[in-house]
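Good morning N.,

You mentioned wanting to compare the apo and holo forms, so I went ahead and generated the holo version with nicotinamide-adenine-dinucleotide. This is what I fed in:
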Amino acid sequence: MQIVPIASYTVQIGSIEETLNPLLQALQYSTLFVLVDEQTEIHCLPRIRHLVEGAQLIRIPSGEEAKNIQVCQQIWQQLLDGHADRKSLVINLGGGVIGDMGGFCAGTFKRGIPFIQIPTTLLSQVDASVGGKLGIDFQHIKNCIGLFRDPLAVLVDPAFCLTLPDRQIASGMIEIFKHGLLNDLELYRDLLRLDALDQVLQTGYLARAINVKRSVVEEDPYEAGWRKILNLGHTLGHGVESYFLDSASPLLHGEAVAIGLIGELYISHRCFGFPQDELDAVVRFIKRWYPDVIIPLEARGPILGIMAQDKKNERDQLHFSLLKKPGEPLIDCIIEPELVEEAITYYNNQLSVPV
Ligand SMILES: NC(=O)c1ccc[n+]([C@@H]2O[C@H](COP(=O)([O-])OP(=O)(O)OC[C@H]3O[C@@H](n4cnc5c(N)ncnc54)[C@H](O)[C@@H]3O)[C@@H](O)[C@H]2O)c1
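and this is what came out, ligand included:
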């Protein structure tokens, strides 16, 4: 088992049997609740059911559409009906949606009851479950309502990812890759050499990616400044993700971030000299593991419109987190919309270049 201490809690990476059992035995709780969605009830609950005997199950629908206040009301109602008090314990068993929303509900119920995160997607294991951000969507704005609150522990068992489709694994992998680019060059270079997707599920890679996020959030827990480096690839990526949301084939978060990463590293190259050979290597990696998605000409206006609403912007100027070179992030880079359009053209052109 590997343990990454973060502020007041630990991320424990290893088999769930090994991590959850001693934790539950050490904790004195009055009642136990386990939050699942229809996927994690089938794929993940069987692996912990014998460890949580007597727990009350709270079932919610899966997916981002469920991350809203109505579903929170159902969760709070079941906590109330189940006589939850401040000594109760909630286990959030699922991906980033369950973790963000279950943590939000636990963190606000009776001004906060303890919770444990058991992330079951790669994205939630290396990113969403670390850093204390909890919340829900409101009026189509992602994570609009929320709070910062730490769990008692985060238990990461890579074996949960074995029931995920490859698309979900690739989606989570981009955050590991991004963490490597930001602050762990060995991790970045290892992933460039990856032969098979499931190799990314190695405990060592997960631990290193979590460690990068740990070092950033410990320095800036409430995103006052340096934590913004984690937004690399996400400014353009979020615009692309939102644009394709209502299309016949929406992108997964990580797929949109992969596109954003190419565009933003191109901007990094043009403005701050990010090396051409590194840019080429990132493009090859992304073309190998992610679908080719052309961004049509008519999408540029809407994408820029969405980016104009980005939380990082100031005085109507687009603010980006970029890279001078691998391992040297920059924050608050003001970029003109024309250069963003050029970056989209660059990205589209790369799709026709043979790998
Ligand atoms: N709090 C943060 O810092 C942070 C950071 C990044 C992302 N997020 C949030 O995370 C969410 C995305 O998380 P996600 O990608 O995990 O999506 P998700 O939670 O929607 O899970 C994706 C799908 O996989 C299913 N699933 C989960 N575990 C499974 C398993 N082991 N086997 C089979 N299916 C399984 C889920 O039911 C769901 O249908 C977004 O809401 C995003 O805002 C939060």
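Residues 2-163 form a domain with the Rossmann fold fold (CATH 3.40.50.1970).

Happy to go through it together on a call whenever suits you.

Best,
F.
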